[in-house]
Each structure stands twice: as structure tokens, then as C-alpha cells.
Amino acid sequence: MRILFITSNRLGDAVISTGVLDALQKRYPAAMFTVVCGPVAAGLFEADPRCERIITMEKRRHDRHWIDLWRDCFRTRWFMVVDLRGSLIGLTLRARRRIIVRGGRRPGRRIEQLGEALGYRRTPMPRVWTSRAQRANAAVALPEGRWLALGPTANWDGKIWPPERFVALAQALRSENLRPVVFYGPGEDERARAEPVLKGLPDALDLGGNHTLGDVAALLQRCALFVGNDSGLMHLAAAAGTPTLGLFGPSRASEYAPAGRLARFVEAPGPEGHAPMTGLDVAQVLKTATDILNEKNVFAPNLGAD
């Protein structure tokens, strides 16, 4: 029994969709899954034992990436095709059942929209898969302790909280015996965005760069708290079970707030979708971060599972 699961090219949306994938795996325990996603999200699924194949789909002119995908999949007789991209490919493959989630902006959280589209009464929460080796490596990089994960970058500058405020927050949270760890994605642009925070916190551990998503998830699971901008990393932290505080300004918390057991967000004052991040002050973020830390059982790190 094989199920084709087509998810987003973008990391944040792909993380959100892992809850649906997990729910499908529980509903069909004998099924094996082929996951289609963008290159940046492929690492999410590498440690999933039910994922027998990952097809990375890179955008090509004239939508030729969809033709390539059809050629890759048309020989298989699928038990089910689940297409979260709302394409026509699910109608052209041999499948007993098809679920096609159409796009378009609707009110409400994206995670709830996906769950409703697939008929789940309870919203499927995102999750991550990590390997034993990834967890062992994370334990070496982040031994037992109280680690504050900071995510000071984002895919566009308007979503970035001023770096000096990340520094001030981390310094204030030293009273909670938290030591900062800075995460960011691959590439020179990401490094440049994180650099002011690293310079302002010379004792912080630098864990950004070219780590796989599974490695990053395993590292995040060892942190007492994540504070970061609205980004794929924020969603990954929440899915990993790390207490997560997402920072929102011009992006929409009503649609993309982090989802998890201890996931919270704060918004800059102003109209949703237009509020500048400079309106979000350190005191507001610090209060919410402290409230999260004071909730029951958040001090022990989440060490993950197979």
C-alpha cells in the first residue's frame, strides 16, 4: 500500500503539514509513503521510517517540474494521493483515492485548514523525526544544561526583530540560568543576519549554517526555550516539542502562529500584516518568555524519539 504525499516547497508550510502526514500514518499503519517537497524541506522526512522515498521538486519554467513529477510517479498504482499543493497531478495518476487541498487565502490558521480539508476533527499537530545518531550528536553539541535557542533571521528583513533586542532578551534571561544558542540557515545572507546577535552575545554557541534539518530538530529538542522570528525554524522548534515563542509583525500570526504543546506568539502593535517589528519591545517578549518557562514541566529538555 503506497501513499503519495505532496507538500510545500517552503520549510514553514512543510513543517505544518507533518501533522497531517503523521495522522495519515496512524490511520493507515500498513502504508508506505512517498513525500514530494522542495529541496529546503527534504531533510524533514529523512528520518521518518514510514517514508520510503523523498522526491525533491525544484521549480522550472512553464511548470515543467509538474511534468517531471508525473513521469516519476505515473507507473505506480497508488492507494492514495494527497496533494496539499492543489495541483492537477492527483487527477492524472492511478489512485484509489484522491485528496486535493485547493489553495487560496482563507481566514484562520493554516494548520487547522489542512486538518479540516482531510476530515480530522482534531487538528493534527506537527512533529519531527530524528535518528538515534542525530540525537547522539546533539547531546555532544548541547550537553545537559538550560539552553536558550535564538532564531534571529527570516526570509525577508521586514520580519526580523532588531538584533540588539535579541541580545537584550538573552541577557535578561540569564537570571533564569539560560545560555544562548544561535540558530540560522545556510548561506551568507543568513549568516550576515545572525552576525549582530553573535557579536552582541560573545559567549553564545553558534549552531547555524549547513546542518541538516534532522540535526537542527535534535538540537532544538535539547533547548529549554526557543525565541525567534516568524520563520521555518520557528515552526521546526514548535514541532520538535521545544517551548516556542514566535515573534510577529508584518506577517500574520492568525494564519501562521507556531503550533505545539508550549507554542506561543507575541505581535507588534498595529494592523495585522502591516505592523513593524520595531514596535515589539523587549519587556513584552520577556514577559511571555518568562510565562512559558514558568509553566509546569518545561525545564526538562525534550530529548526526542525515533
TrEMBL record:
UniProt keywords, alphabetically: Glycosyltransferase, Transferase
Entries under InterPro entries matching the protein: Glyco_trans_9 (IPR002201), LPS_LOS_Heptosyltrfase (IPR051199)
UniProt cross-references to Pfam families, sorted A to Z: Glyco_transf_9
Gene3D superfamilies in the cross-refs: Glycogen Phosphorylase B
Entry annotated with the keyword Glycosyltransferase: yes
GO biological process, one term: lipopolysaccharide core region biosynthetic process
CC annotations in GO: cytosol
GO molecular function terms listed in the Swiss-Prot or TrEMBL record: ADP-heptose-lipopolysaccharide heptosyltransferase activity
Stated name of the protein: Glycosyl transferase
Native source organism of the sequence: Gluconobacter albidus
